[in-house]
Design a protein that fits this description.
Blueprint (H helix, E strand, L loop, with lengths): L16 H9 L2 H17 L5 E5 L5 H8 L3 E6 L2 H13 L5 E5 L14 E6 L10 H11 E12 L4 H9 L3 H4 L7 E7 L2 E6 L3 H8 L3 E9 L9 H6 L1 H14 L11 E8 L3
Helix pairs in contact: 2-10
C-alpha cells in the first residue's frame, strides 16, 4: 500500500476517482478502447520487465501487467486515484505493483530507483502536463537504451467529436481540440484542468533527442468517445463492428489521425 505524504494534498482528478471505473473503465466504450491499448501493452512488455507507468489512475493497467509477470512502478498526482488503485492492488494481490503519489512533472524523483525496461501512460494523463519536454528528459534518464515508451494521448482532431457536437449545435466543443494553446476542461463543478492537444509531429519533436518515434496508431477512430456511451449501449452490435474496424483503420495513414486517442511507440536511443 502506498503512503500518501500529506492528507491535505488535492488534485483535480480526485473528483473523478470514485466513479471513474464505473463511468469509463467498465463502460462499453471504455472496455473497447482499453482493449486496443492492452493488445499493444502485451506485445511490448514481457514477464520480468520493470516498467514505469505515468498517471496510473485507478490501477487497472498496472494490475493487468502484474498478472502477466511485469513489475510496475506506477505513479499518479491524484491522492484519491492512488487510494483507489491501492485497493485494487490489494484485492488482486498484485504484489509486483509499486504505487507512488507523484506527478508526471516530478519523475526525477525516480533517479535513484535504477533504470526501467519501458514506460507507458494511458488515456491522456500527459495531455494535462504543461512541460512535456521535462517529462521526456526525465524518461530519457530513467529508461534503458532500446526501451519502449508507449504513450497514449488525446488526439488533436477527433472526427467523432466534431460530428457529435455539431449535431448538437455546439461548435465550440466540436472544434475545441483545434485550439493552439491549452483549454480548460471541467471535471466536476469545482474541479477543472488545463488540457493540451498535440500533433504526432510535435510530440516527436518534444521527446527528441532521447527518443525516436517508431510507430503510432489511433485508439477510437470508429469507436466513439466515452460521452457517447448511452448510444453504444443501445446498439452493441454497432460498437462491436466499430471495434473490429478499428483494428484495421486505426493504423491507416491519414485517417488514423482523426481518432479519439493516439498511441505512440517511442524508442529510447543511445545518445
Amino acid at each position: 500500500m502506498p503512503t500518501l505524504q500529506a492528507e491535505s494534498i488535492h488534485a483535480p482528478f480526485d473528483a473523478l476517482a470514485e466513479r471513474y471505473d464505473q463511468e469509463f473503465t467498465f463502460s462499453k466504450i471504455g472496455q473497447a478502447q482499453r482493449a486496443a491499448v492492452w493488445q499493444e501493452l502485451a506485445r511490448t512488455f514481457h514477464p520480468g520487465d520493470r516498467v514505469l507507468e505515468i498517471g496510473c489512475g485507478t490501477g487497472v493497467d498496472a494490475c493487468l501487467l502484474a498478472e502477466r509477470g511485469v513489475k510496475v512502478v506506477a505513479c499518479d498526482s491524484s491522492p484519491a486515484m492512488v487510494e483507489v488503485a491501492a485497493r485494487r492492488v490489494q484485492e488482486m494481490a498484485a504484489n509486483t505493483v509499486d504505487l507512488h503519489l507523484l506527478a508526471a512533472e516530478n519523475l526525477a524523483a525516480f533517479d535513484q530507483e535504477g533504470s526501467f525496461d519501458g514506460a507507458f501512460s494511458n488515456f491522456a494523463g500527459l495531455n494535462c502536463v504543461e512541460d512535456l519536454r521535462a517529462v521526456g528528459e526525465n524518461l530519457g534518464r530513467l529508461l534503458k537504451p532500446g526501451a519502449t515508451a508507449l504513450l497514449c494521448f488525446l488526439g488533436p482532431c477527433c472526427l467523432w467529436e466534431v460530428c457529435w457536437y455539431l449535431l448538437k449545435a455546439k461548435p465550440r466543443k466540436a472544434f475545441r481540440r483545434w485550439h493552439s494553446g491549452s483549454i480548460s476542461a471541467q471535471l466536476a463543478p469545482e474541479a477543472s484542468v488545463q488540457v493540451r492537444y498535440h500533433s504526432v509531429r510535435s510530440l516527436a519533436r518534444i521527446f527528441a533527442p532521447s527518443f525516436r518515434l517508431r510507430s503510432w496508431g489511433g485508439i477510437g477512430l470508429m469507436i466513439p468517445p466515452s460521452y457517447v456511451e448511452s448510444v453504444a449501449r443501445q446498439f452493441p452490435s454497432l460498437l462491436a463492428f466499430a471495434a473490429q474496424s478499428d483494428r484495421v483503420l486505426a493504423r491507416c495513414p491519414v485517417i488514423r489521425g482523426f481518432s479519439d486517442h493516439i498511441l505512440l511507440k517511442l524508442e529510447r536511443i543511445q545518445l
